[in-house]
Amino acid sequence: MTSPGSSALSPLDAQHRALDATLTEFAGWSMPLRYGSQIAEHEAVRRNVGLFDVSHMAQIRLTGTQVVAGLEWSLTGLFADMPVGRAKYSLLCNARGGVVDDLIVYRTGVTDFLVIANAGNRAVVVTELLERCESFDVQVEDVSDAYALLAVQGPRAQELLEDVVTDSSVRPREARYFSCHDVTMEGQVGAWVARTGYTGEDGFEILVAAEHAPHVWDVLLARGGAYGILPCGLAARDSLRLEAGMPLHGAELTPERDPFSAGLHWAVKLTRATGDPHECVGAEALTEASVALESWREQPQNAPVDARILVGLLGNGRRAARTGYDVRTLDGVAVGHITSGVPSPTLGQQIAMAYVHPAVASPGTVLHVDVRGRDEVMEVHPLPLYTRPDRT
User: Fold this and answer.
1) Distant-in-sequence, close-in-space partners of 357: CB < 8 Å, separation ≥ 6
2) Mean pLDDT, to the nearest integer, of 104-117?
3) What mean pLDDT value characterizes the chain?
4) pLDDT value at residue 3
5) Cα-atom radius of gyration of the chain, to the nearest Å?
6) How far is Cα 70 from Cα 50, in angstroms, rounded to an integer?
7) pLDDT of residue 392
8) What whole-number distance in Å separates Cα of residue 121 and Cα of residue 375?
9) pTM of this structure
10) What is d(CA 337, CA 326) in angstroms, rounded to the nearest whole number?
11) Overall average pLDDT of the 239-259 stretch
């Protein structure tokens, strides 16, 4: 842990400094923003392969005879039928139905799960899970400091992993999307690999003991040279996830915003296969939000004036729509605000995500974004804004 006012250092801090990375404070950590060109890093992931240090993410282990029941009370997902070696995106919501955090749950054993949460929410998620699982036979352990997390992302990620994984019950080329398993990597280093990521490309995330992380990083960069690898920072990670329509906590997701308005209805299971209700924290409020969203879809013009749903935006202007900028109709009526926006290296356009009133949320609707006092024209577009070629 770090003292007040200081930033935590990744186990790979020395590697980042050796590569002359531009470091920035993020969620209490000193992390690489970029190593050189953000655009080059972004394009490496879209065309070849990129290597990210995401060790700032929180890793929380849950075990016990009632771990499934504890997780299903705590989160919006159902886990009883989830096979060992699989992963699932889920949400930790409050009693009002707002998103405390979005996270990925990995089943690493029959009574053993790993939750990876956002860095800035580490303490909050640990506390919430401890409190929510208190009446169940569940042990909650924050194991974040023991591990480093690396992400290998891009169309050539599989080739690189095949090159550096020396032993595994499931070869990288055979691994299913959202699966996880143990491997041995070059140098006889044990690691845990999941076919997941936050870029919209194929890729893998590697959990390895903190003391072995520098070796694994160096091996991936050295072997990755044959595949066009670049080390990538937070700036490229943000533009990649925005193109792919992936929400960011603190931007698209907040404790005041329900997951239905954010387009995450698929991550909320309000009923079980039996038809019985899924009793979880916030279930009543989530049900109300689901009903409200359906009503807005059927009659968007009748939605309350402050109703908002998340949409994608595309524009051809020269100035980016940034977080917090107002969104207006063509006749100047305020109808929402930008949550995230960047120039897209892949699409060659300005892109953004925004919460807007349901009446102006249909694809093709033309809106104005107030960019420092000047209106920029943008058009509503379905999310994601970019889909990798093998999924189109």
Assistant:
1) 300, 303, 305, 307, 308, 335, 336
2) 98
3) 96
4) 39
5) 21
6) 36
7) 67
8) 35
9) 0.96
10) 4
11) 98
- Where do we find the tokens 């143990």? 182
* SS3 assignment, position 105: strand
pLDDT of 4 > 90? The answer is no
HSE-CB at 100 with a 13 A cutoff on CA atoms is 21
- Angle formed at CA 149 by CA 148 and CA 150, multiple of 5 degrees: 125
Tell me what pLDDT residue 188 has: 95
Whether residue 384 is preceded by a cis peptide bond, meaning omega within 30 degrees of 0, is yes
The residue behind tokens 């070849």 is: 48
Sign of CA dihedral 39, 160, 11, 200: positive
Model confidence pLDDT, tens digit, residues 292-312: 999 999 999 999 999 999 999
Q: Which domains does the chain have, with CATH numbers?
A: 1-232+268-298 (3.30.1360.120), 300-385 (2.40.30.110)
User: Residue 182 — very low, low, confident or very high, per pLDDT cuts 50/70/90?
Assistant: very high
pLDDT category of residue 2 using cuts at 50, 70 and 90: very low
| Three-class DSSP category at 287 | helix
103: its two tokens = 């996270």
Name beta bridge partners: 213.
none
Amino acid at 222: A
Paired tokens of 48? 């070849």
Report the SS3 class of residue 316.
coil
253: DSSP letter: B
Query: Contact 153/203 with Cβ under 8 angstroms?
Result: yes
pLDDT tens digits for range 115-125: 999 999 999 99
The DSSP result for 38-102, as a single string, is HHHHHHHHHHSEEEEE-TTSEEEEEESTTHHHHHHHHSSS--TTPPTTBEEEEEEE-TTS-EEEE
CB 62 within 8 A of CB 129: yes
Contacts of 392 (CB under 8 A, 6+ apart): none
| Strand 29-34 versus strand 8-9 pairing type | parallel
Q: What is the pLDDT of residues 341-363, one digit of tens each?
A: 999 999 999 999 999 999 999 99
Handedness of CA 203, 209, 213, 219 (dihedral sign): negative
